[in-house]
Amino acid sequence: MKNFLLPIILFAITAAVSHAMMVRAAPTIIMNITMDKMAERGYTVHRFIASPRSTPQTQTVVRPSPDLAYAVCRYDFSFHNTPLQIAAQHWQDYASISFFDAQTNNFATIPVGYAGGETIKTSLQLLPPHLSQTERNTGGIRQITSPTDKGIIIIRRLAPSLELYNAAQAISGSDVCAPVTG
Amino acid sequence: MKKIGITLMAILFGLAVGVGSALKASGMVGNPPLEKLANINVSHWLSDWSIGAPTANAYLRARVAKRGLLALSKSEAVYFTRRLDDDGNLLNASCRYKLSGQGQDARWWSITLYDNHNRLPMNEDGALSIDATQMENQTGDNPNWSAVIAPTSPQTDFQTVHWISSRHAGDFDLTLRLYLPSKALLDDPQAILNPPHIEKLDCKTGEIL
Asked: Per the count of CB atoms within 10 A, which of A39, B176, B183, B192 is most buried?
């Protein structure tokens, strides 16, 4: 028994540690795979791309909603450590901009204004995680900070019919996800 | 030498058990029953308020990453899933069901059908979900709405019937999404949610759907 004590202890420690590490790592692994697959499907970094209407034939993620029009922007601050300008064209019904970090956390969701108001876009800046305070623009622009270098931004617009989906697609070309210049 | 071999095997076996148990416990492999993943149950409509939140425990985040990646946190949307009819039997495409209910205390809601691989069922019927806008148009001032879940369309010449197609869905479940739920609903879903009913109408035996 004494001869097996060390292996038993090592087995238990290895099992416990690898279990904990795997559970913690799983969301990040899945998110990385998702972002890599998006890249393969043409979702370039720092640009909103309108997704095809969710149907059984076009679905690429689990449990998509067929009643929403999605525009997706992958971001990656390892390319450049400068803020991103984010803007969503206003919509005639429910719409939001949601931010997901590399560990799948939904760290912010901003409502998008209704079309027909005084302004036509909801705008803000997304800051990289390690931007110093002196580098932050405090010119009154709303800012949120990403907890991680990489992540995904999704604009959702309520569009339960094909007609509404097409209308959402049409305005999605004006959505902005791009490095702040100047 | 023998001791080193045993030690190495213990470490490798520990790794295998650790990783395998993690994948199983977090729902990354297999298909754990929904009841094990939820902490809210309103008439078989199951949910977890920590979905999307960084405070969610690691197991929940791993399970949500697999089953519903990019789900919103509860202040924006909540998601209920149900896989049983009112008699407690699994929902299956060989049966027809009447889905009925009332409005919800949220800005907008929808009910969507998914197969047991978390996908929209592979059919071309164009009847994947029902939503608040459709139901309000159907009922007007009447708060009660209804729809049929079936592998074939229930349309008749006499009336328009809202339909969710279960064709090629096999064993399936329904997800009730509520966007911008009220504070009252978030505080007490048991009291405020109007859980839709799922009544089995009939079943066809011997068919694989």
From this structure: B176
